[in-house]
Amino acid sequence: MADTLVYIGLGANLAQPVQQLERAILALKNIKDTKLVQVSSFYGSKPMGPQDQPDYVNAVAAVRTRLAAVDLLTELQQIELEQGRQRKDERWGPRTLDLDILLFGNDLIQTERLIVPHYGMKQREFVLYPLAELNSNLVLPDGTRLTELLTTVPLNGLTRL
Ligand code: ROI
User: Which positions are annotated as active-site residues?
Assistant: First the structure.
């Protein structure tokens, strides 16, 4: 079976977020049947959602995997839990680590556990700009060009750290 190029969004805004992302990247390197191929710069971003929470640190990583998407998701959720992620009731609250599958090749996935492409990615500056650093020629499965999205989504204070 061939491998799949996957883009993963990383985000944290608690408990030393830069270190959380660095630790998560080490953990990505250890996922079975998966190779880390690229990591963007780290970015500081304003919280999307409730504003009474710290700023975020965000990045995007590219991996090549032979795992099925759902099995990769299980691995990512395990890493989140190992880094102290607590599932809270509050929607869009702060978190020590968030790992989102943004794109899984050109696959469209709509299951109970997983929706890919990530539902919010087209509107999120903290996803689109790091992604563009990895592949500015990227075209989404629906044919949208990343460069096109960048013209419509402002930086909103996003800064490269
Ligand atoms: N806001 C920013 N800036 N970065 C995130 O990674 C992020 N993640 C989230 C919500 C709470 C929606 N806001 C965010 O899950």
Answer: 85, 95, 98, 100
Whether 92 has a pLDDT exceeding 70, the answer reads yes
- pLDDT for res 103: 98
Closest CA to 123 of 104, 140, 98, 105: 140
Full domain range(s) for residue 11: 4-160
Q: pLDDT confidence of 132, banded at 50, 70, 90?
A: very high
Count up the domains in the chain and report the number.
Answer: 1
CATH number for the domain spanning 73: value is 3.30.70.560
Which atom of ligand 1 is the closest one to the Cα of 55?
3
The angle formed by the CA atoms of residues 129, 145 and 161, to the nearest 5 degrees, is 5
User: What is the best residue among 56, 100, 101 to mutate for testing ligand 1's pocket, by most ligand atoms within 8 Å of CB?
Assistant: 56
Q: How many whole angstroms from 47 Cα to the centroid of ligand 1?
A: 6
